[in-house]
């Protein structure tokens, strides 16, 4: 028993993955291809992808947002948990990264569940609101540029239904948020959103130490 979160040593983390990770082959291939890229640290951990898929299945979600798609691991994890008629709308601006994503979505035979918008995410989110899609999403995953994190959160609150879930990635930011001597723009943006989420009565929250930190916000 412990009254604090257990620190995962490399040996324990290895056991943790071996004993709990059920990563489909297509996700493993995508993760390994992304790992070879210079920006590979932007990809979520496999256990986080598995956790997000579990959330989707628990919620019986049918319509989700993926804000910041990169090579598509989070979107694919979510899409695999959706029913055949489900849909995840992805927001990204990088055609090269998302080309890798689309290849693996097709390999997994879920490309018909994923709708990619190659445009600034704020434009895509505003378009969804303009089309009357407020309150129609079950789940939103935020993992894009940190300076707009608060904007993505506010858009997500409008687009997600009551009882829907918003997941905010990188909230621990490699520990930088806890170091007051670090004040670069990205760290400050995440730190500010963390403070906002703590006090925001529009949601119920839980911050998890999975991956680089993940906050779940349930819309009340």
Quick overview of this protein structure:
This protein has 8 helices and 7 strands. It is α/β, with parallel strands linked by helices and 220 residues long. The longest helix has 15 residues, at 185-199.
Keywords for this entry:
220 residues; alpha/beta; seven-stranded mixed beta sheet; 8 helices; 7 strands; 43% helix; 20% strand
Description:
The protein starts with 9 loop residues before the first helix and ends with a strand. 39% of the residues are buried. The protein is an alpha/beta fold. The chain is built from eight helices and seven strands; from the N terminus they run αααβαβαβαβαβαββ.
List the helices and strands and how they pair.
Layout: H1 10-20, H2 25-35, H3 46-59, E1 63-67, H4 73-81, E2 87-92, H5 95-107, E3 114-118, H6 121-130, E4 137-142, H7 149-159, E5 160-169, H8 185-199, E6 203-208, E7 214-219
Parallel strand pairs: 1-2, 1-4, 2-3, 4-5
Antiparallel strand pairs: 5-7, 6-7
Helix pairs in contact: 2-5, 3-4, 6-7
Q: Report the order of strands and helices.
A: HHHEHEHEHEHEHEE
**Widest sheet, order of strands:** 3-2-1-4-5-7-6
Average pLDDT for all residues: 97
Q: What is the first-to-last residue Cα distance?
A: 33 Å
Secondary-structure content class:
alpha/beta
What's the number of extended β-strand segments? 7
Q: Label the overall shape.
A: globular
Number of distinct helices? 8
Q: Helix coverage percent of residues? A: 40-55%
- Report on the biggest sheet: 7 strands, mixed
The value of Rg in angstroms is 17 Å
Share in β-strands: 15-25%
Q: State the low-pLDDT regions, or none.
A: none
């Amino acid at each position: 028993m412990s009254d604090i979160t257990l620190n995962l040593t490399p040996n324990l983390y290895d056991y943790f993955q071996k004993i709990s990770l059920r990563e489909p082959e297509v996700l493993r291939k995508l993760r390994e291809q992304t790992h070879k890229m210079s920006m590979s640290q932007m990809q979520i951990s496999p256990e986080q992808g598995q956790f997000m898929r579990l959330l989707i299945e628990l919620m019986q979600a049918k319509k989700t947002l993926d804000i910041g798609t990169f090579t598509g691991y989070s979107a694919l994890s979510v899409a695999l948990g959706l029913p055949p008629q489900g849909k995840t709308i992805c927001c990204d601006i990088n055609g090269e990264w998302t080309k890798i994503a689309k290849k693996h979505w097709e390999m997994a035979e879920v490309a018909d569940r994923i709708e990619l918008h190659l445009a600034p995410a704020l434009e895509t989110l505003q378009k969804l609101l303009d089309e009357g899609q407020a309150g129609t999403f079950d789940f939103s995953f935020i993992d894009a540029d940190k300076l707009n994190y608060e904007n993505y959160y506010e858009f997500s609150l409008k687009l997600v239904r009551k009882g829907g879930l918003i997941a905010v990635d990188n909230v621990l930011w490699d520990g930088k948020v806890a170091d007051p001597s670090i004040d670069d723009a990205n760290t400050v943006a995440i730190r500010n959103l963390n403070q906002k989420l703590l006090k925001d009565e529009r949601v119920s929250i839980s911050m998890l130490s999975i991956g680089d930190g993940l906050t779940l916000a349930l819309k009340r």
